[in-house]
Sequence to fold (491 residues):
Amino acid sequence: MSKGLKYSRWLQGSLVITALGLMTGCALIPDSTLSQQDSKPEVSVDWQTLKATDSVAKPVRWWALFHDDVLTSLESRAEKNNLDLQLAAIRWKESRAQLGLVSSQKNVQLSVDGGFSSIGLSEDAPLAGVGAPTSRIDTWTLSTGASWEMDFWGYLSDKEKAAKEQLQATAFENDMVQVSLSADIARNYWRLRGVQAQQRFLEEQIKIAKDRYGLAQNREQNGVGTNYQTQTMKAELSDVTAKLPSLEHQEAVLKNALALLLGLSPHALDAELSGQPQAPSMPTVLAVGVPSDLARNRPDILMAGAKLRATIAQVSAANADFYPRIRLTASVGALSNDLSDLGSWDSRQYSVGPSFHLPIFEGGKLRQTLALTEAKQKEAAVTYRKTVLSAWHEVENSLGAWSSESESVRRLNAAQKQREVALHAAVRSFQEGAADRGDVLDAKQSLVSAKRSLMDGQVSQALAMIALYRSLGGDWSGDVKQPFSGEKVSK
Fold:
């Protein structure tokens, strides 16, 4: 039989086997359990119904609206030293390396192999009995090989696409950590300033309570007051004084919380965060951007979308895994019993040809892998829709909180001014002999209480503003960044 005829029959047989393998692979793929909604990357949300206070683009560093140098310094240092940001950077590098591993499978694989072996047969071996030499035989080998998988069904491409989407998801996760970090620092900072202000007002109230207690004692000694009034003032003094240790503990806890966010040890910021606290400076109108841009600004929405696209690609790869894996391989090298002859033409050897692998029965592994990836895709789709809906609620609630807190501050400010007028009237009446010192102390007490309420309202307004900008997602939109070193993904 001629060599051409043998080759033709071999080729025909290979084609028949491949065709049978393709049909078998197609028959093995189970029916998909996914619906069209499971692959839909969008959710219908009427963003225009959100009540925006101003359509001007929101600032990237929104905390600068408070005009507080200490807060700005804390935010800047946290971007460099926060441990959560460092972990996010490491996770991004892990995803980048994973993408490089997956992408490398699509490239031609080259290798160089070499070796030396020395073999000697025993004189009692069966082969020695039929004349095989028993002397030592040295063998030298040197070869270069190449292989490349032909990705007909898109298995490797889908794996690479899933890895790219996962890399995007980790980049958006870094943005999400930045948004949360800036909000946490601002929230803890203004809570701390609020507690410090409460301490200052409490000290004023303690001083007033002492004066009222002393006045009650004098009245009792002069016969114009009762012991009941004296003991009541003494009890009020004890009640006010008892609140101070709790505020001091809250101050220490909030200072340590800020130190932790900056990657510092406890009490590292105590000196910097001491001093007379000032009320937060609030803008009259907030710039929140265009509500319809929310889906492009919130990193958690972008991350959920990237994860959904990654699971879609993983399902495609799991389907493609039912088909044959075809690979082209080639090698060329030399084999010789003498190292000096390794480079001669007669020592050459080579091999070239395709190979394929078709999974027929693997105990249900492929079916379960496909079922697992489809379940993950369904989970990712639900997570995406939940994330978008949650974002809508958060922005709506934050805008409502900002509006209500702003109105409360306006009214509390008016109440404080009225208390100031009342104090001036009490002082004037006391000077004119129409009122006693107790009326002045009562007016002072009411004014300090009004100041405390106003400070509480201003802090609540600041916290509402922080929650609003956190719900808006900062300003980390745009193309996916290489946010850590500017390096490009290496394939």
About this structure: Residues 476-491 have pLDDT under 50 and may be disordered. The first strand starts at residue 109 and ends at 119. The chain has eleven helices and four strands.
